[in-house]
Amino acid sequence: MIRRRGSAVAAAWAIVVGAVQALGTPADAAPALFWLSEPLRPGEVALAYGGELAGVREVRVERLADSDPGMPPPRAPVASGVAVRVLQPSDGSLKFVMPATLEEGVFAINVGGGPRMANAPRVEWSQPTRLLPGLSQNETVPGSTVQIIGRNFLLNEANRGRVKVVLRQPDAGDPGRGL
Predict the structure, then answer these.
(1) DSSP string for residues in 18-47
(2) What pTM value is reported for the model?
(3) 8-state DSSP, 89
(4) Cα separation of 169 and 94, whole Å?
(5) What does the pLDDT profile of the chain (179 residues) look like in tens digits?
């Protein structure tokens, strides 16, 4: 009986291993970035966390063109840009030096699994400075002053007068997109 149990366990294990191989193994996974230290400035060391990063030897860094507010940056893979050598790669993190030749701005960073945006302005939340009864989340009345809380709005103090915000009506199917 012991041999049968051992055989049954071995057979079950073979089935599990076969299923995992059929689904794909971690070796088949592309490197991915989950988090980047921000803001990223030219000449500074950047820290990135992700998955499957141990084999990455270079990062491609491309500065995206400045565009009007409300225009999404391109989502195409970074094929051009500057190749940068990776420092201290491990499975879950790596470091690299941002190219000093690039101008401050929004960057697309690619380790081989698709680009990750860095320094893109990000609204965490917004609220009117004067709260009024009857308003829902992300609503205010005309003429109100609105506080916008987030990150990467002003990367360079010299651009203070150029920062723009676009206010738009929420989409009919998405009531949370008021700002």
Answers:
(1) HHHHHH--GGGSPPEEEEE-SS--TTSEEE
(2) 0.66
(3) -
(4) 41
(5) 444 455 554 555 455 445 444 444 455 678 999 999 999 999 999 999 999 999 999 999 999 887 665 555 555 445 568 999 999 999 999 999 999 999 888 899 999 888 899 998 888 888 888 888 888 777 788 888 888 888 888 777 777 777 777 777 766 655 554 44
Token reading at 66:
């400045």
Q: Report CA-CA distances (Å) from 23 to 13, 83, 112.
A: 15, 32, 21
The two tokens of residue 176 are 């949370």
The DSSP element (H or E) to which 8 belongs, if any, is helix 2-23
Gap between the Cα atoms of 80 and 12, Å rounded: 48
Amino acid at 5: R
| Identity of the residue numbered 99 | P
What backbone torsions phi and psi does residue 23 show, to the nearest 5 degrees?
A: -75, -20
In 26-114, DSSP assigns E strands to 32-36, 45-51, 58-63, 82-87, 93-97, 107-110
